Amino acid sequence: MAAEEQDGELERNSIKEKARLRLREFDVRDRFSHLPLARAAVLLPLMVRAGKLHLLLTVRSMQMNYLVTPVVGFIEDTFQPSPNPDEVSNVFVIPLEYFIKPLNYQTVPYKTSSGYHGRMHSFTYDDPEHKMSFRIWGLTAHFAVFLALVIFRRRPTFEIDYDLDNLTSSSENYFMNLYASVYERKKSNI
């Protein structure tokens, strides 16, 4: 292996290891397993490309609508996805830093039925590889923003619903407020 290939491999491993250490600090394990919700998960695959962390995202088919838990993992930047077209209509890679320093961002304030006020993030990413724009919003944007906050420890260029000095408890409060709203809505529909 040439010296510059070895240097590149060391840099990728260093970036991955720093991210892994930060993620371990925020691993919730089974903290919310007592909640009576159907369980599902979504993988947030990270890769190092050109010395920076990137997130591989999919555009879900319109037939999907699930409550999900994020699971973060690493993939090689050479990974070639082969999605099920019934579930995924597109796959793209976006720099993780875009979720704290976006070029095209909007926020939509909302109030849950239990009175909790929050923000829905919406990002538009102009993908140079596919030569198209992708909208990242809702739960996907929420997970991506939180992942970027955990790894980079930097305040984004937009307002967020978390206290960066106490990210774990503020994110748990955010989740529990959303859960309370969903629970109340389900109770009222019974």
Protein traits:
32% helix; four-stranded mixed beta sheet; alpha+beta; 3 helices; 29% strand
Structural class: alpha+beta
Q: Please tell me how large the radius of gyration is.
A: 18 Å
Biggest sheet overview:
4 strands, mixed
Runs in which pLDDT lies below 50 for 5 or more consecutive residues are none
By DSSP, the count of extended strands is 7
Give the spatial strand order of the biggest sheet.
Answer: 3-1-2-4
Give the percentage of residues in beta strands.
25-35%
The backbone outline, from C-alpha atoms, is globular
Helix content: 25-40%
Run of helices and strands: HEEEEEEEHH
Spatial separation of the terminal alpha carbons: 64 Å
What does the average pLDDT come to? Answer: 83
What is the tally of helical segments?
Answer: 3
Break the fold down into its secondary structure elements and pairings.
Blueprint: H1 3-25, E1 41-49, E2 52-60, E3 69-74, E4 88-95, E5 105-111, E6 117-127, E7 132-137, H2 138-152, H3 167-188
Parallel strand pairs: 1-3
Antiparallel strand pairs: 1-2, 2-4, 5-6, 6-7
Helix pairs in contact: 1-2
Report on this model:
A hairpin with a 2-residue loop joins strand 1 and strand 2 (52-60). The longest helix is centred in the N-terminal third of the chain and has 23 residues, at 3-25. The chain is globular. The strands form 2 sheets. The chain has a 4-stranded mixed β-sheet with strand order 3-1-2-4. It has 3 helices and 7 strands. By secondary structure, it is of the alpha+beta class.
